Structure formats: C-alpha cells, structure tokens
Amino acid sequence: ILSSSAHSHDEYQKTADWLMSQTKHRPQVAIICGSGLGMLADTLKCQDSFAYSDIPGFPQSTVQGHAGRLVFGELKGKTCVCMQGRSNFPSVHQTTFPIRVFKLLGVETLIVTNAAGSLADGFQPGDIMIIKDHINFPGLVGLNPLCGLNDDKFGPRFPAMSGCYDKGLRCLAAEIAKELGVAGFLQEGVYAMVGGPNFETIAEARLLHRLGVDAVGMSTAPEVVVAAHCGLRVFGLSLITNKVVKSYEDTESVNHEGVLEVGRLRSHSVQQLVTELVGRMEINNNDNINKSV
Ligand SMILES: O=P(O)(O)O[C@H]1O[C@H](CO)[C@@H](O)[C@H]1O
Ligand code: HPA
Predict the structure, then answer these.
(1) What is the mean pLDDT of the chain?
(2) Quick one: pLDDT at residue 254?
(3) How many Å lie between the centroid of ligand 1 and the Cα of residue 291?
(4) Is Ligase tagged as a keyword (predicted)?
C-alpha cells in the first residue's frame, strides 16, 4: 500500500527538467517556509516564481497561510529556491516530492522552518528553536517517505539519521543569533512530528513532554528524512507559536490563526537569521547537477 504512492525517478526528473527549462537559476540552497514564515521568499533578488499548480507533478499547498509558490532567486550571493508553503496532509510521498526535485536541481543544503507548539518548560511563544534532532512519530509506525522500493540513485535502503541536523550550521546559527541580538529568545531542542491535523489532547501533550520533546508540529520530519537519505546537509528552525496545553486547569486552547499571528510577529527575526546563515555558510561547487543521482 505504501509503495504504491511512491514516485518513479522519471517523475522527479521531469519536474526538475521543467523547472530548469523555465529558470536560469541553479539553486545551491533550498528553503522551506513554515506557517506564517513565507515572507522570507519575498526577499530573494532576481526572482523567478511559479505557482505550485503550474509545476508539473508538484504537490499543491493545502494549509491556510501557505502561499503555494516556488520562488527562485539570490540571497546574500547564494542561489536559492524557496518553498512558500508546504502541503502537509496529502501523503508523505507527495509532501516530500520537492526534496528530490531539489536534489536533481543541484541543491546541496536544505533549510526547513516550521511553526511549533512548545512542551519544554522554559520555552515561550516567540522563541526560535534550532532543531537539534527530531522524533518522527508517523515514521516510527510506518508512515515513512522512504517506505516502498528504495531508489538507490538517491540513497541507501537503510540510511543513518544520527547527525542529520548539521552541527556546523547549528553552531553558526547560534553565533549569528548573538550578533543579531536575538540570542535571548533562541533555544535548541528536539522537534516531534505528530500526524495532525488536530492539535494534541492534554494526555498526548503530557506524553510528549515526558518523552523529552521540546516542540511539536505536523511537518518537517519527512522532508528531513528524504533530504538526509539523498545526502543533503540540513538545518532546521522551529518558531514557537504557542505553549501546548498540558494542564486540565488551563482554559486556553491553540488555534491556527494564533499560530499564523505569532509567525508574522517574529518572521522578521527568523528571516534575518536564515538570511545571514545562507550568506555565511560554505557551499561546495554547484557542479553536481544530475551527477550524483
Ligand atoms: O509545520 P508548519 O508548516 O509550519 O505548520 C504548522 O502549523 C499548522 C498548525 O497551525 C500545522 O500544519 C503545523 O505543522
Ligand atoms: O501546538 C501545536 N501542535 C502541533 N502543531 C503545531 N503547530 C503549531 N503549533 C502546534
């Protein structure tokens, strides 16, 4: 059942070829903008942008607050491709389709951002969390984008996931945060992906807290798994948009509009951090298009 929705190599290649015929940009870095964080894409210079619905084979954005555009352009001297919105809820294969297309375009580093609720006691809405590691709950029970026949051209059947969030980039981001004066609300922690689309019950929240989860959301882990599988370097940021309700006495509850609102309030800081990181990260030669895959 799971393998039936996986894509063939040709399908990724067709989409990559179409994009390369439509833009001269050959991106080195791909950035996925989470809920309320899409304005980062607007800052790219010399833009070429495409509605997802116009790109052959591309999954559509299904989440409110996600524009559904793929934007190519320059950021601090690096060529980037930016997903202004993700499609969280069709299937893990569809959600992660763009990652392999990026690989075929020559991308070597993936930056993922998301909105997330906090479980960690010291975290506040508005904090920015560098993702140190993740727990892929859907993946642990078999909803894994690598299920189905393995495509050896992308990576091995049993890829390692330890160290999938690059340590060098995490250190560089922490240094940059200090310089930008945002270290006061910078955190580092473990992101857990749950299936969603409902927010957590109080009992689920308590379980996640006990398991050592710092922040929870409904995305990102599958993208990172597919990226690590095909050898992309990964950096991830969660914007903490709400505290997850853990007490039966608590009368507050989370909603998507609130998530988007905090996203907008802090998006400038997230944008600054990502921009500086892209500017200062070292990139190997962008001559691997179609060679390693
Ligand atoms: O992970 P991103 O795309 O930021 O979206 C987050 O925000 C939505 C909930 O408000 C969920 O889709 C959750 O995963
Ligand atoms: O509290 C949350 N739970 C799950 N996903 C989320 N995305 C933003 N906030 C949350």
Answers:
(1) 92
(2) 84
(3) 34
(4) no
ipTM exceeds 0.95: yes
- How far apart CA 227 and CA 235 sit, in angstroms, is 11
Domain coordinates in residue numbering, the chain = 3-280
Give Cβ neighbours of residue 255 (< 8 Å, ≥ 6 apart). Answer: none
128: helix, strand or coil: strand
Q: 203 is written with which tokens?
A: 């009992």
Q: What is the pLDDT of residues 31-53, one digit of tens each?
A: 999 887 888 999 999 999 999 99
Q: Using a 6 Å cutoff on CB, does residue 51 contact ligand 2?
A: no
- In contact, 234 and 165? CB cutoff 8 Å: yes
What pLDDT, on a 0 to 100 scale, did the predictor assign at position 65? 67
- Say what the pLDDT of residue 285 is: 59
Q: Tell how far the Cα of 152 is from the centroid of ligand 1, in angstroms.
A: 31
For the domain made up of 3-280, the CATH class stated in words is alpha beta
Of 182, 195, 169, the closest CA to residue 110 belongs to: 169
CA 167 to chain centre: 17
Q: Is 151 in the pocket of ligand 2 (CB under 6 A)?
A: no
The tokens 């951002």 sit on which residue?
113
Residues in a beta bridge with 84: 33, 69
> What residues contact 288, with CB distance under 8 A and at least 6 apart?
106, 108
Neighbours of 149 (CB within 10 A): 9
Ligand 2 center to 218 CA (angstroms): 7
